[in-house]
């Protein structure tokens, strides 16, 4: 990764694609160059579905929903076409919790609801309620309940306290 950090150029990866080299906090917010951030999730990792769920749950439990979203995004981009809506919905829940923890209550509630709708629709269409150990009914219930509280409260939430239990 090349890093100008001086405003004259953009951070680029080895292939020349724009990539931010700035460190990030636990909620994925950029920190100043040189600050101590949390380790970033590697991008483009292909994991087995249960490994994806286990890794994402560990990140949720650590208060790192932004990073859990990246794990789900890898599954969504690399998994079978007929599972992409599931992984995308789970990624939306993780981003929703991220926004809610950052204080963006409108965006957080919206993404939590959108993710819940996508997961519910996917499960109904597949006739599944526990793919790869994920309790779809419980996760959808969690997301909708949290979305209601986030929208009504207007205050940032604690990402650790509000982390979902995926059910693995």
What would you say this structure looks like, in words?
With 168 residues, the chain is mostly helical. It has 5 helices and no strands. The chain has helices at 49-61, 65-78, 84-102, 105-126, 136-153. The longest helix is centred in the last third of the chain and has 22 residues, at 105-126. The protein is globular. Mean pLDDT is 90; it is low at 1-8.
Keywords:
mainly alpha; 5 helices; 168 residues; single chain; globular
Tell me, rounded to a whole number, the average pLDDT: 90
Number of helices: 5
**Low-confidence parts, pLDDT < 50 over ≥5 residues?**
1-8
Straight-line distance between termini: 36 Å
Rg, alpha carbons: 17 Å
Number of strands: 0
Strand content: under 5%
**What is the global morphology?**
globular
Work out the helicity level: 40-55%
Helix/strand/pairing category: mainly alpha
Order of helices and strands: HHHHH
* Sheet with the most strands, sense and barrel status: none
What topology does this entry show?
Elements: H1 49-61, H2 65-78, H3 84-102, H4 105-126, H5 136-153
Helix pairs in contact: 1-2, 2-3, 3-4, 4-5
Summarize the structure.
With 168 residues, this protein is mainly alpha-helical.
């Amino acid at each position: 990764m090349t890093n100008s950090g001086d405003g004259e150029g953009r951070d680029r990866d080895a292939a020349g694609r724009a990539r931010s080299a700035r460190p990030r906090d636990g909620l994925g917010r950029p920190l100043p160059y040189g600050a101590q951030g949390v380790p970033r999730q590697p991008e483009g990792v292909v994991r087995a579905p249960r490994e994806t769920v286990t890794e994402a749950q560990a990140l949720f439990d650590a208060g790192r929903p932004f990073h859990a979203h990246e794990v789900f995004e890898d599954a969504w981009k690399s998994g079978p076409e007929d599972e992409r809506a599931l992984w995308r919905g789970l990624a939306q829940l993780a981003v929703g919790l991220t926004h809610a923890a950052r204080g963006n209550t409108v965006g957080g509630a919206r993404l939590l609801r959108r993710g819940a709708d996508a997961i519910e629709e996917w499960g109904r269409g597949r006739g599944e309620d526990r793919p790869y150990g994920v309790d779809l009914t419980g996760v959808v219930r969690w997301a909708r309940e949290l979305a209601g509280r986030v929208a009504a409260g207007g205050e940032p939430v604690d990402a650790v306290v509000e982390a979902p239990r995926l059910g693995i």
